[in-house]
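Ticket reopened. Same input as before:
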Amino acid sequence: MLNPATTEFIDTLRDRLPEAAFREAGPEHLQEPRGRYTGTGLLLAPGSTEEVATILRACHEARVGVVPHGGGTGLVGGQVMQEGATPVILSLARMDRIRDVYPSENVLVAEGGAILANIQSAAREAGRMFPLSLASEGSARIGGLLATNAGGLNVLRYGNARAQCLGLEVVTAQGEVWHGLTRLYKDNTGYDLRDLMIGAEGTLGIITAAALRMAPVPAASGTALFQVASPRAALDLLALARDRVGDNVTAFELIHRQGPEFLAETGLEPRVPLDPLPDWMVLVELGLPEGLSPEDSLTAIFEAAVEAGLSEDGVIASSESQAAALWAVRETIPEANRRIGSISSHDISVPLSSVPDFIAEGGPALRALGDVRINCFGHLGDGNLHYNVFPPKGRSREDYEHIRAKVKELVHDLAHGFGGSVSAEHGIGRLKVGDLERYGDPAKLSMMRAIKAALDPHGILNPGAVLRG
Amino acid sequence: MLNPATTEFIDTLRDRLPEAAFREAGPEHLQEPRGRYTGTGLLLAPGSTEEVATILRACHEARVGVVPHGGGTGLVGGQVMQEGATPVILSLARMDRIRDVYPSENVLVAEGGAILANIQSAAREAGRMFPLSLASEGSARIGGLLATNAGGLNVLRYGNARAQCLGLEVVTAQGEVWHGLTRLYKDNTGYDLRDLMIGAEGTLGIITAAALRMAPVPAASGTALFQVASPRAALDLLALARDRVGDNVTAFELIHRQGPEFLAETGLEPRVPLDPLPDWMVLVELGLPEGLSPEDSLTAIFEAAVEAGLSEDGVIASSESQAAALWAVRETIPEANRRIGSISSHDISVPLSSVPDFIAEGGPALRALGDVRINCFGHLGDGNLHYNVFPPKGRSREDYEHIRAKVKELVHDLAHGFGGSVSAEHGIGRLKVGDLERYGDPAKLSMMRAIKAALDPHGILNPGAVLRG
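Engineering reply: fixed in the latest deploy. New output:
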């Protein structure tokens, strides 16, 4: 059992931490973006790894819970704790430096609180790129992005957050520092604790710094939006593109017409430059080496797709602003979704070849539950769909409260039945603890609980996240 | 404390396992390639995951050690146990099927005993490639390759074994089966047990099957051998190549003239087609998308390298047989090394920008210990050098026995001093347990021991490998 963090407990730290570490928790620490949870806790904002270690030693000793807080952008409640003994909220916001950049190694080292956009800028200044890219990049912090193994738009080509990380500095539950901040591309000395910490959502340790891979900037990039006859045709088009340019396909996003229709309905600007608006579209981005023209490659892919009966219409960006306009359609859909208000949102993945069947079965099954609209979009190349269910025009999510649980269960059961995941990129947090218990492999869950007990015997790290406390 | 595997213990399994599972251990199970260890044990060769589980349940209950055995090609004694209570040797050789191939998903599923070359063939037949490639691919088995997170020739572009794996089926120490054989590219539901098992060298679980990523075959490949002025020039040439073709550089191998000289000295065939023989060379391979000529790209890279003063000579393969001849030089060097007989071999990595300093400091320091020859070659693009120390011509490794420990310590201390690894790709096995204790981070070692105790409380899995029993 954990003890609550009290002001008396916080005061015991005053001779061990500088004044700057003591702050008032604000709404940004106690709420999460979707407004489903309101947390509680007393805030500490350490300025160094040693200060994090000091706090964790004290919390471990006093058996006080610690909720790590990065940018607060997570979508599954991993960053707020609303039940149980009041925890310390451990903000990494003051540890936001890029410590070092090693351009000749394609490596940079950032503190856990460094904001993703700043890491991207540092890589750009070094003539490289940091490929992790997602909607919240202006506020999400790398410690949280790694703790949740964030995905985003470039996973197809560059992998998720995990794939960008070479080494970690981590403070353990006992307040020891693991100096694992290696810049090595290969190191087979012992268990892969790096990948264990990545995706553990702060329940096994606190990521205070990371050595990150930068990637070479492709010599040229190109973007296109192609109508496709069906989700199956979209997959065939992906295979066709890869036959031609290998894995230089950097993004392959599926868009159903519901997304652009939501944009229009909610008064949001970006428009699809195809008339008539297709039922299904894919947004394709190529990043090519020197000597190839992205426009030529995209044209060749389009012509082959037309010949194969996969596509009948499309637009290839001929400037950066045209490319940005195409991307704006994709990137504004989540905001349109928020304005409409979903009955239930899902972040599922299924094996690539099952995507069309999942979509074909999901629609009729959901519509049997009620008069709903489905906005299915996302990272098709990764088999990862944001499959969100909405009320019809003129009605609100509140009208559908009674079927919400059923909708979620139907979608999750369907994905699970295809061998899929009920959290492809958002993680478990507190929202999906029950889903993990329901769908998770029993041997996996046993091992997870054994590891949690071994590394955090008092259960102080992010209590109730991922695993029930 | 573990109990020895006795014939009585084995006999208790006869009613639970088919006759085919009972075999005599042969030399291939009791020796390792370098002849440094001779193991002991009673052999079991299960034919299915359920049989593996049966064996592990019995061993867990009886506290009998289990040494997993794949292809037996490991170089650090992870596959043989020569001390302690006689273990069961668990051979995966009968579980060698490719279970399924999913070309449209770029995924195949193989049993733990599947031989790497057969996996490569299955991928080729599906019009894809399986990029893991190393000298022992004709006998190494995927379970062992994953358990040791094997590296090899294509890590620069495709990553090591870890990066090829989507999902695992694993039998735990308690004989439970974790059905984690997912074909998903994205799945953020809980701790990353896959990567924990990968590289754990059979000490945390037995890998009975794996879902593996296949990669698109590059539309065209090209190979060249360039003289370079120095290791620093080699790194600059790599940067230059990447500026032009991004990460379509699929291999970048450093070769010191000592390697080709050893080939000549030991009567091995391949010759370097450059005259005079340069002090330093790099073997470069590009895998390019449609529309680019590898020869043109390599020529452009060479011309730029000459202009930058990095290279003065080189040869670009104009046929597959010429490319194979260049690769033969690199691939035959290990055999020449074996024929010469090393005083001490090392599989180190350092941060990329420290490679030249490591090489500059290592030579004089070693020659201060004695009259030695150094063959430094390997995966420069990964910062991974096979840095092997040999006697001068006419003398043998036995003459240098007295300095062997000092040589190893010097090389390992030097690599560690640069923030490097003393086992970049071979793992810890039993050979480097002391190195891990000497160089490993204390917090990392504590966590490793806690995880080992949590997942394998009786310590039956590969006793004495990675961590002291």
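The domain at 7-91 of chain B is CATH 3.30.43.10 (Uridine Diphospho-n-acetylenolpyruvylglucosamine Reductase; domain 2). Chain B touches chain A through 99 residues (CB under 8 Å). Please confirm and we'll close it.
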